[in-house]
Amino acid sequence: MNKFAIALMAATLFTSCSVSAENSAADHEAMSGTLLVGNKGEDTLSFIDLASGQDISRGDTGKNPHEVAISPDGQLAAVVSYGAEHIDIFEVAAQRKIETIALTPGKSPHGIVWLDDGRIVASTEGSDSITIVSPPSGESQTREVTQISTGQKGSHMLVVTPDKSRAFVSNMQSGTVSVLDLVEGSKIKDLPAGTEPEGIAITPDGKTVWVADRRGDLMRVFDADSLDEITTIKTGNFPIRVAISPDGKIAVTSNLGDGALGLFDVDTRLPKGTIKLGGSRESAQVTILFSPDGKRLYVAETGLNRIAEVDMIEGKLIRHFTVGKNGDGLGIVQTVEADQTE
Prior knowledge:
The chain is an all-beta fold. The protein contains 1 helix and 28 strands. It has one helix at about 5-10, and strands at about 30-40, 45-50, 55-60, 65-70, 75-80, 85-90, 95-100, 110-115, 120-125, 130-135, 145-150, 155-160, 165-170, 175-180, 185-190, 195-200, 210-215, 220-225, 230-235, 240-245, 250-255, 260-265, 270-275, 285-290, 295-300, 305-310, 315-320, 325-335. The chain is globular and about 50 Å long.
């Protein structure tokens, strides 16, 4: 049976779960690799060893690091500095900063995607735009930096279609999602998306875009081609992020107001249960990230300076990682498959 199908069945059998906050997974098969966490309260990037659960190193970033993107080859990490105007590039294995990319005139970068053609795309909220950074080229390894205007306020998070033709950007203050043509470098349309849309995800097949209206406690699903709104889905309290499993079967909301995760079947768009984590707004639960194999989900409990690791096969919390102050943005490099018995 498909493992996500097992997870979905398991999710219907529970409404909450809890475990101790030990950095140990003795009863579970540990991941192997590195989890990167942007600590926005102390301007650092944590490197977490997934096997041991230890924060083994921290590198200095620009002011207020938020989202993290991993290069297609898994060797580099890009970290936005929301309180500045640049992106820092880190070498994951060496755990060191090797480059800083100025985004001027782009300001307040937040959401970030590293495309498989080497381009880095970031929302630049302070300039109502997205910024596109080319791969380094030539003898001097220079990068070209260009912008596409959203013309909307609060351009906070973004996703890109698998064919790299379009970007979808959530605009929190304008209550819209901007659809941008990455080929022509222009805006196609603004889609009404509720009171305060923030979290956004796209299915791996590129067919649907899922947008969480955090003030409305709703998730909207759009057809990525026609741009029609397909449906709205009731969520938990204050859904601040959305993530979709690598196999495209499960959508997960990070419900900051509940300190919990909401699970939804992508095909039927029906709720499939919840996973309780911190259980309250005080944990300031924000960013969520699937491991590349989809077996784990990592959740930033920003107010508690820790990351929760959730087993998505069994549908329960395994352990916590202690990170820096207000750890939020997440990136992962999974070096070894956790299960080789299939």
